[in-house]
Each structure stands twice: as C-alpha cells, then as structure tokens.
Amino acid sequence: MLPAEAARLPALDILTEDDPPLTFSQNGKPSGLVVEVVQEIQRRVGSRDPISVMPWARGYRLAQIQENTALFNTNRIGEREHLFKWVGPVTTTLGSFFVRSDSKLKLVSLDDARKLSQILVVRDWYLQLMLSAQGFSNLSAIATPNQMVSMLMHGRAEVIASENTTMPTQLRQLGYQPSDVHKAYTFVYTSGYIAFSLKTSDAVVKAWQHALDDMKRDGSFAAIYRRWLPGEPMPGMTANPDEKVK
Fold it and tell me: Which residues form the Solute-binding protein family 3/N-terminal domain (predicted)?
C-alpha cells in the first residue's frame, strides 16, 4: 500500500485477549502468534494503532458497538457471521471437551456431553455460542481460559470445552504438562479471523485482507505460525466462508 493510501485509513481500536500462545500480554506488551501476524499486517498497511489486551467478553462487546474496531483471534461461526466483517483466516482450531488424564469419563457423542451435570467454557467464546445453539443447558461460563483450566485441574469441574492450539500453553503456565489432560471428544473444526466491527471502513478490511494474503504468498505468515505452533495445521491461503465450521 502506498503511504498516501495508508494515511487515508482511519485509526483503529485493536483488541485482543489473554489466550496464549495466540494472544497474550508479556511484560505489559501484546505478544503471541496472532499478535505477530497483526503487527506485520499493520506494518504493511501503515497502521501504528496500539493493540489492547483485555477480557474477551469486554472486547467482544466493544467490537459489536464501536466503529473502526478490530478483535482477534475471533473464530468465525454461523452465530457470528453477520456481527462482523472478516479478515483471515489466521488460525485453524479444533474445539474439544477436555478432562484430566485420570478421569474415567467416556464421551462418544454430543448427546453424551449434554447429559453431564456441568461443562466449563469461557464466557462469550465461540464454543459457548455453538454449544448453546445446539441445546446445551449445562454450560458454566468462566471469565478467562486460565481460570477455567485451573478449575479443571483442581477438581472443581470434570469437563471443559477448549482448543488444541491453546491448552498446552495454558497448562504449562499453571505448572502442569499437556499430558495431564486428554481430549474426551472433539466436536468442531473452526478457523480464527480478525473480526472488524460492522462500522469499520470497507477500505480497512480490504487493505488488511490484501496484506494477509501477501504474507501467505511470501512465506512470512508460515514462518510466524510454525514458530509458535510447530506441527499444527495452518489455515488456507485466503478468506473462505466455507471454512467457518466443518
């Protein structure tokens, strides 16, 4: 993008949450896989707007009511499709029910999970929205991912709904190992995006998507992704609504 074109783009509120290794705050500064992707997009489009780390529920609410606001990493699901304008995909995620490794619980279907007394999920995460839409009345909403994982490991819950991309890091931060839990049942594949408020300029969305596509073509996106999530599948080259949920 030419400097003159970048200068015409409006200032943005850029919001994210504490969800390592994708997004988090380190020594007061935003860090993580998707943070690095967003910062490189900003460099390419000429944006110098700061990234704010805040609780997900707050950022999710602000991104729906403010103009010129971006929120990431936001999983693109049907329940959210018309709430935002989308740039991505930037992550590939498996949503699963997790239990402690010493648990005897067996889940072979969503119906089995619906019969449980309680499942913990982060408030306003896409997993809560999806499971609620599928008739789950046994969800308990928790403020942060680390709080949810801590409750699982301390025996205050038997089952949580979380992701393959973030669980290992969250466990290590709390003094545990990834082997201390196991997946009881994987129920959804999603792609994460940068979600822009509906009142954001289409020119901004177009410029950010173009910069992301260029990153994927020149290899810089893959380099960032592999450094943070070695061995995990990467999202496709360009935005594709069909990748929302599989």
Answer: 11-232
CATH code of the domain in which 166 resides:
3.40.190.10
Find the angle CA(63)-CA(23)-CA(187) to the nearest 5 degrees: 85
Mean pLDDT over each residue of the chain, to the nearest integer: 91
CA gap 61, 53 in Å, rounded:
14
Residues 129 and 175 in one domain: yes
Query: pTM value?
Result: 0.80
Q: Cα–Cα distance between 226 and 216 in angstroms, integer?
A: 13
pLDDT 10s digits, 197-224: 999 999 999 999 999 999 999 999 999 9
Residue 143 domain boundaries: 93-189
Residues near 152 by beta carbon (within 8 Å), at least 6 away in sequence: 98, 99, 100, 120, 158, 159, 160, 181
The predicted-structure confidence for 93-150, as pLDDT tens digits, reads as follows 899 999 999 999 999 999 999 999 999 999 988 899 999 999 999 999 999 889 999 9
